[in-house]
User: Fold these one by one.
Assistant:
Number 1:
Amino acid sequence: MKAKTNYTIWFKLIAVLLPLLFLFLAEVALRTCDVGHDLSLFIEHPDNSEYLILNPNISRRYFIKDENSTRGCIEPFKKKKEPGTVRVFVQGSSTAYGFPYENNGSFHRMLQYQFNQNFLNKNIEIINLSLTAVTSYTLLDFADEIIAQQPDAILIYAGHNEFYGALGVGSSGKLGLNPTIVRLGIEFRKLRLGQLFFSIVSRISKKESSDLSETLMKRMAAEQSIKKGSVLYERGIKQFKQNITALLSKYHQNDVPVFMGTLFSNLKDQAPFVSDLDSDMNAGYFYKLAKESEKKHDFAQALKFYTQAKDEDLLRFRAPEAINENIKALVNEYGAILVPVEEDFKSSALHGIIGEELVLEHLHPNLKGYYLMSASFYRSLIKHFEFTTDEEVVLPLPFEELPLTQMDSLFGQYTNLILRSQWPFNEPMLDVDLTGKSMPEVLAGGLAVKKISWDNAMFKLQEYYLNRKEYKNVFKVSESLALAYPMNSEHQMKAGQFATNVGEHKKALMYYRKAFEGDPNIKILAQCVKAGVNAKAFDKLLPILDSKSVQQLNNALVADIKSDIVGLEMAERTIKQQPKNIDVLQVLTKIYYDFGVYSFAKEYAEKLEQLEPENSLALEILKRLNK
């Protein structure tokens, strides 16, 4: 009897394990034959095995149809986090990604530039993991793999896509409405078996294949009328709340600070897409009331009505107020940091009502808008990390200083025109005649219709400005390339050279330092030193000279250079207290001359001559410089 019982147990166990073994072997076989894709969040950089990048195929985890999948930013970061590095990851969707701008128009790149300029001796890396048209399911799914990379902060701007993004409740690409089933579906799609299964299902589906001429917005929106308070509406809000709760809980348990921004959208200049024709008090009704209140200069009432119009809009491409309410409550509950992005937009908008002066269409900001986003997160990060107590440094750099070109701005405008000519805007496409237009206009047009890559457009733009001897614009283009490709030492060197040419010595030091990090050699170090001396940035220069990379050069000149820099720093401090100290003036004159910084050498030699007309050092230096 006992033997029979054991036989039965073994039979049942084998019956269970055999299919699992078969599936395991099938998965191994598919991987061996390279069927499907590795859908790890991070993969090794193809050109440098010391670095990781966001997997270009990662969005295949979430989009049922591969043609709808989107790509994120490719921003390398080291596998092994170096001591002192502040590692920041960005999570979100198209706005967090930076749509429609290529590269440096995104808020995270502007943020990176701010940190590069204001905190030269801090290694702050910002890695954007945002993907267009994804929901909170994606954010939550990334969390464990992000935590494994030792983040010092997470920046989140998300919530507009909860209805129509991948796996959203009103999306054409959903795996169901039950969160557990959706999450299991995501895990299944990570397997090669899952990818094969969905590929087969997609092929044998009786539905017509997607029209790729349509916008992603149209292909993703299945339920185009979701009424406020309806079952589907409440599921969308609940889905966001549950996923963000789980997300913030994970980060909180791992002591990772989270900075989450409040959501903004175009209220004033984006009429509701779809109004409920069965209701008199629909979205169109409130939008009309808002316009009437605005004409009466009752802006507080106008804002209230505009917000109601957005909330009653049946086509839910703009997050309802309930999403922001959840963000504020959950941030408070889990000890995260609330970033007042919407509030900062309202402060900058005319009469506190956000419109086309900051937003291109319904929710994606223009370059000024992305700058506002970056400034909001910048202030919150500075306050949290206590990088400095210097109020001048704490302030964000002015918008005009950012490495953004006329071509970048025009590209956003042209892309916006194309987008607005399609569903759900359906606005007449304006004829953009580029005949006889400037090079920035022509290049922006080519970018918008994908006839030229951003890199090639930037190279042509730089050549155009060089031929016109517009060196400040040449420098701006070189800065833009350096920001987009931080690992490219050649771009860093060129940015440093052009910075020197236009007298931006502090910026030159920053770029030469980055070039030196990528290619440590004495020639680049010499450029660092000269730029630092020109900028009188001794506090920035000395840590470079003390760095491990410089020590590994094992060059006897380095000790002499460091000694001179220390001497300069002390002399500059002393001369402010004792402006007529002959000995100190002589030290300053000689060292600046030796470093080839002739403007300062001449300045101090002239002061020496005034105090001591027969001073031999002053006379000799001035004689040489006057030649």
Number 2:
Amino acid sequence: MRQARMWLTAATLLCLAALWAGSAMAASRDLGAGWEYRWGDSPMTADGVPTWARPSDDTAWQAIDFPANPPGRRGQTHAWFRTVLPDGDWRDPVLYITSIDLIAEAYLDGERLYHHGTFDAAGNGRFAGWPWHMIRLPEDFAGRLLTLRVYSDYTDIGLWGEVRLMERAELYDLLLRDSLDALIVGPLCLLLALLAGGFALFQDDRRRFLPIGLFALGSGVMILAECPASQLLIDRPLLWDGLTAAGYFSLPVALGLLLEHWFADTRARRIRRIWQAHLLYLVGALGASGLGWVELSMTFPVFDALLVVSLVLLLAIIVPYLGRFDARQRAILGAFALFGALLLIDMAVAHGLLPWRRVPTSAGALAFALVIAGISLIDYAHTQRELKRLNRQLEQEVEERTQRLQQLVDRLEIDSTTDPLTGLHNRRHFDECLRQETHRARTRQAPLALAMLDIDHFKRINDSHGHAAGDRILAGVAIALREHFRDDDEICRIGGEEFVVLLPGAGADTARERAASLMAGLADRVYWHDGHMLGPVTLSCGIAAYPAHTDDPLALPDLADRALYGAKKTGRNRIITAT
């Protein structure tokens, strides 16, 4: 119950974060076409860089629609794929890949950007899990060659699912939206497993509730482990794949136990052999992979084949007896059938038998959970009083957690407009504040001044003493800014060593006086870092004011920036006012 509530709270938090992140998203671009491939592994240069990772006109590269399973594999375990990245207006670009079979390295014009798994000296490697991948790209990626080195001794080789170029915020929004149903259905299944386990402990008909609890537990664990948001919480792909396997492999065991109970007087022995075979496979496969005897990835194809055979056999056993089932049993079997059909479709997609698509397996689990919940309410109406008490307790906890969540949301809003190093407002806050003060100045015909300041020779400080020393200077200047400007003035850090102050109701002379006071105060201050004296620090400043220098307050940053440039150009440590 506690774990289910934790997942529900996490789902709510992630959804709110997705709504916030989605406000600045740019359109993504599908990169699922226009690739080239070649079989084998690349020779290495003297400095250890694969030669195939660099641009070349080698005729061994061949076109392929999607970078996966090229023709003519014939036992090959190494493949290379490449494409030229397109142009686009991206601020924080990433490459999103749904999954890779099995391990890979990504290069941009020969420079390694990303790796999943570890390649040994022979170019081979062990299975490292099936996570989604986010490859950070530099700002100048457009038109450059992206190359992927892939190793796989699995049934598939290459990429699987989607390959998209997008903003990082857009990717997080996508992952959270794709996780929403799982974060709702998964905890619901775990809650159902807990209730069924409780009934099995206190009711005489244990053989009925144990299979239901096991099926709900297995499906809940599988759905949550496959949920993209799980990787955001804990970045342990093999852990999640192991949990997925445990949940997935336990489903036919639960189904067999339930059918054995229903057919105790006729076909119990045959059904028992089927679920016992799956139980042996569950223990053997997970045990062997845990000991390193086999790769976890190779246990899935074998299980898939075993599952298809088992479902056919179970179907042949129960179809002649469907007429003897009551409405409750038919409802449970219907939910099992829906979930099983979705699992088979998902299996076919995973093995390339069907085109890639997102299969809503959680819908089958939800149908199963709803059927069991409905039957439980009918059979155990006398538990309503206890359920109401639990509901009141849950509502109270949700209210408490909602309050905490609101606090987190408020904190998130503060963090989104605050520079973490200096504690000043950031560029996002400045842009919004400038729009507001511009409207106010125009409406009230009030003056508005802007001072743009830049620390002189800041790069020299970083180069000589390190970035930690530079951070010390930035924090010190921030403190001085707060001391020398009014509470009503908006002080923001908008760049590395660049600050801006917006002075509502002030003219150029007032802004110049305050900037001069600031610079005079800094002349008497020194800062220390690791025993070294830093300073005194000097600033260059550019000032612009409305309406003295422009009839458009939105032009103040450009005017002040030009004045700042003039201060830098004419010797630094001075104030220049726009003309």
